[in-house]
């Protein structure tokens, strides 16, 4: 996936500009010192050039030889009274220089972390989000390999078993909170070519991309001053790279869909200014038994059937879709659980819980998922 490298670059720009004290202050409140062209030096960082063997829990943790990395959790949850929630808890790491931070360096560090926490309360028709920043030093933020864990202040992911396939997620911001236990019910998926997810035709412009595409989820969500017991399913993405978008790409649309017949679909479309998709766009079909098949851009047809205009940014986002994978006999009609799921953080984007109905292998199905939409407020080319 080409996600979130823009936000990581923003953090690096702030650090190089001297904002080392930044922990929870939104970028929107800081001076506009965000010229990124001179802060994206990748010399010395490793590149993703070929497939490699993965080992766990080690590869769930940080890869400090690569410049950018993220751990991305999203899910759909149902309370005992029937209330529906979507959630997002994501952590990002940006290396300012290659290599792990020194353990004895005090507050000095070459690693910057930030995180997003969002909850979509469908019954209350509210989408609430928060963003935090910190240096990867003095216990403020960081990530571990064995045991696997990642944290930023009191937002955290903690491994619950030896291989990292079970985890506890905790986050609180004001009167919004979650405390969830996740358990992978299918094997980990290596997307692209055995884990190599290409971002453009340029060699090395790629990421290592792994997912648990279905994780049984139980726990508690706090919203509206009320804590509710919930259960549902989550999706975990982990990527690391030293790469950027290809020339002419203005944004991307990313789909993660969990079908009621046990299949999952991941697809990302890298959008050019004329609306055409980059040739390296693609995804993965995960069968009910965990076997996978790589999807190429020609395999997936997406028709936008509705839009939503943000009253805050005036951006027009797709808001209903028909997704078809003819070779897999999949036809889906997708809509957001709530139209207003825009993330107005350092860089505005839309990410939210969706639901769908349709057919799979000729049988009626339904399901939930998450979709991310970037480049609709302004072009990613304006930054790179």
Task: Please sum up the structure shown.
The protein is mostly beta strands. The chain has one domain (5-382): Beta Barrel (AttH-like fold), CATH 2.40.370. 3% of the residues lie in helices and 51% in strands.
Number of domains: 1
Number of helices: 1
| Poorly predicted ranges | 1-39
Ends distance? 17 Å
Describe the model.
With 384 residues, this protein is mostly beta strands. It has a single domain, classed as AttH-like domain (AttH-like fold, Beta Barrel), CATH 2.40.370. The protein contains one helix and 23 strands. The strands form two sheets. Strands 1, 2, 3, 4, 5, 6, 7, 8, 9, 10, 11, 12 and 13 form a 13-stranded antiparallel sheet that branches. Strands 14, 15, 16, 17, 18, 19, 20, 21, 22 and 23 form a ten-stranded antiparallel sheet that branches. The two termini are 17 Å apart.
Secondary structure topology:
Elements: H1 5-16, E1 68-79, E2 84-95, E3 111-121, E4 126-135, E5 141-144, E6 149-152, E7 155-159, E8 166-173, E9 176-184, E10 189-190, E11 196-198, E12 206-223, E13 226-241, E14 249-259, E15 264-272, E16 282-286, E17 292-296, E18 301-309, E19 316-325, E20 330-336, E21 342-343, E22 349-360, E23 363-373
Antiparallel strand pairs: 1-2, 1-13, 2-3, 3-4, 5-6, 6-7, 7-8, 8-9, 9-12, 10-12, 11-12, 12-13, 14-15, 14-23, 15-16, 16-17, 18-19, 19-20, 20-22, 21-22, 22-23
